Task: structure prediction
Amino acid sequence: MPNPSHRVRLGVNVDHVATLRQARGTRYPDPVFAAALAEQGGADQITIHLREDRRHIQERDLHILRQTVHVPLNLEMAATPAMVELATRHLPDTVTLVPEKREERTTEGGLDVVGQAGLLANVIAALRDKGLVVALFIDPDPAQVRRSAELGAQTVELHTGDYCGASSRLVQERHLTDLRNAALIGHDVGLRVAAGHGLDYRNVGAVARLPHMAELNIGHAIVAQALFVGFRRAVRSMIEAMHQPAELGD
Ligand code: PXP
Result:
C-alpha cells in the first residue's frame, strides 16, 4: 500500500513558455523567469527538454537555468553524442533520456530500452561518469523497466500518455494497471519511479497515488492554467499602461 504521508515531488516543465517566445522571436516570455516563479509556487524540480531542432528551449536557457535554479534541474534529451556533450558541459542534476523524432508534435512514446540497449548503456555510462543521475523515459512495460535497471539507470519515468489519452474509463483503468505494475517492478529492481506526459488537473491524482511514485513531471497543463489564472490581471495591467501619464519628452 502507498504510504499516505509520502509526498510526490513535482517537476515543472517550462518548455511551453519557450514555445510562446519562439513563436514571435521575442525575448519574452522567458522560461528562466517562469522557472523562478515555479520555484516560488513550490516546484521540487525544473524540467526542460532541449530538443535537437531547438523548437522551444535554447542552449542559452539551459546555461542560465543551471546558474539560477535552486531545486534540481532535469534535462530531457535524446541519446545522441551531441546531447551527451552538452549535458556533460552544462551539468544538470538529472538527465532524462527520451526518444525524439523531428516530425512529432511532442514526445510520442517511451524509449525502446530493450532494442537500443547497446547505445543506451554507453550513453548512461558516459553521463553517470560525470556524476549525473540518469532517468529513462519508458512505456509502462515490464521488460523495459527491467532492462532499464540492468543498463544502470537510476530512475524510470513512466510514460503516462496512453493513460491520459484513453478514450474510455475502462481503457484508462487498463493503462493505470500497467502503470501500477511497472511501478511495482521498478521499485523491486531498485529503480526510483517517476511518471509524466499529458497529466492534467483531473487525471493526475490517480497517478500520484500509485505505489512508489516519487516524482511527476508536468508542463502543458500548468502552462495552460497559468495563462487563464493570469489573463484578467494581464488585461488590466495593459489598460493601466495605456493610460499612464506622459513622461517628460513624450
Ligand atoms: N516527461 C517527459 C519525459 C516529457 O517528454 C514531457 C513533455 O516534454 C513531460 C514529462 C511533460 O509533459 P506535458 O507537457 O504533457 O505535461
Remarks:
- The beta strands are 9-13, 45-49, 73-77, 94-97, 133-138, 155-159, 192-196, 213-218.
- The mean pLDDT is 95.
- The chain has one domain: 9-242.
- Residues 220-242 form the longest helix (23 residues).
